[in-house]
Amino acid sequence: MFDSATISERLLRTIRTQMSAQGRSLTGGQGRGLTLGVETAADAFAHLVADPAHNLGPARAVFTRLGRTEFREGHRVDALRAILTVGARDLWDYLTTLDLPPRLLYGLASTLFGFVDTLAGAAAQGYLDEQESHGRDWDTTRRRLITLLVQPDPPGATVLQAAADAARWPLPATAAVISAEGTDGANLSRTAGHGTVATVIDDATVMIVPAPETPGRLTHLGAVLLRRHATLGPAVPLAATRESYRLSRRALRILPGAGLQRCDDHLFDLVTGWEPGLMDRYAATWLAPLSSLRAPERETLHAWLRAQGQVLATAEALHAHPQTVRYRLRKIRQVLGGLLDDPDARLHLQLALAHTLPRAS
After folding, report:
1. Is the torsion defined by CA of 291, 297, 299, 300 positive or negative?
2. pLDDT the model gives residue 342
3. 154-184 pLDDT, tens per residue?
4. Which residue, 73, 115, 252, 325, has fewest beta-carbon neighbours within 10 Å?
5. Residue 151: what are its φ and ψ, rounded to 5°?
6. Are 213 and 235 a contacting pair, CB within 8 Å?
7. By CB neighbour count within 10 A (0-12 exposed, 13-18 middle, 19+ buried), where does 45 fall?
8. What is each CA distance from 71 to 117, 118, 340, in whole angstroms?
9. How far is the CA of 283 from the CAs of 4, 153, 338, in angstroms?
């Protein structure tokens, strides 16, 4: 009925104009791909008019590849859809000049717009497939970068730079690590912004915050993680990211409560709770001599140690009479003897009591 070569030539002129309006051209790889797409579409449409059962698989495959290329080159899928729409209108204008019977023309219109919908669907599918594939690759790239930063052995400068380049992450001078409950690392990374990258390691999200000293950055992250159990390791030189990671991960296990908690604000809790059960054994060892004393004597000893041996300050802290404090201290000295005069022993006793009497302190 009509020559596909003629249609191709006409469509290429129209599409070249449309692409120019988008700031693009038919040169380069994508241009050659679109040229092939136009030629394939024109040939497939001509065959479809002659045979409604014509196999459109090859044409769909070409436009699926075009959709993938659109994503890789940073274009929106709507741009390719607009080109298809303009091409369909131009082809329809051409068909109306052929002086065809109305019934045949209406049939061609139905075939044409159904055909264009098929190609547009194939292009959209290719675009989405490439987007999904890229998303998986991106997650893998970010995970590799973060794993390199938090692994026990620091990576070489060349390896780290290559991983950062692949993740499009400019290497900062300093970084801090946030450990957060949940496995939605990609979502948290997008919400955090400011170059923060995240991945999931051992059922928790690990976020690398570049240049955490930047004004407002940690405040923003605190708002993002307001209802999330999360801990912030210290800001460290990039080569020491592992240190910030270890502190934040251990803090996530030790420190209760929601919201972003800074490890630097809880160093005593981290030190005493680092090895499960160890502080219990430490306290039991140092407080063993006090087993014969009642709770009030233990509380008095703790208050006296905190007051650096000042009886009046101890009495005030306990809301007790100074004579009561002196009486209890005499009983304590009978048990501990010269340990109370040993500065190191006093330190150990205070730490042990702080561990066993957290609410009494």
Report:
1. negative
2. 94
3. 888 888 998 888 888 999 999 999 999 998 8
4. 73
5. -70, 160
6. yes
7. buried
8. 19, 19, 74
9. 89, 34, 19
Tokens of 358: 């957290």
Separation of alpha carbons 122 and 17, rounded Å: 23
Please tell me the distance from the alpha carbon of residue 358 to that of residue 54, in angstroms, as a whole number. Answer: 81
Render pLDDT for 84-142 as a digit per residue (tens, 0 to 9). 888 888 888 888 888 888 888 888 888 888 998 999 999 888 888 876 666 556 778 88
Both tokens of 168, joined, read 């499009």
Q: Is 60 exceeded by the pLDDT of residue 284?
A: yes
Percentage of the chain exceeding pLDDT 70: 93
Provide the token pair at 295: 């709770």
Q: Residues 242-251: contacts with CB within 8 Å, 24+ apart? A: 242/149, 242/150, 242/151, 242/152, 242/154, 244/175, 244/176, 244/177, 245/149, 245/150, 245/177, 245/179, 245/206, 247/177, 248/177, 248/178, 248/179, 248/206, 249/179, 249/204, 249/206, 250/274, 251/179
Instruction: Please state, in angstroms and rounded to a whole number, the distance separating the CA atoms of residues 155 and 137.
Output: 21
Give residues with Cβ within 8 angstroms of 188, minimum separation 6. Answer: 180, 182, 198, 205, 207, 224, 225
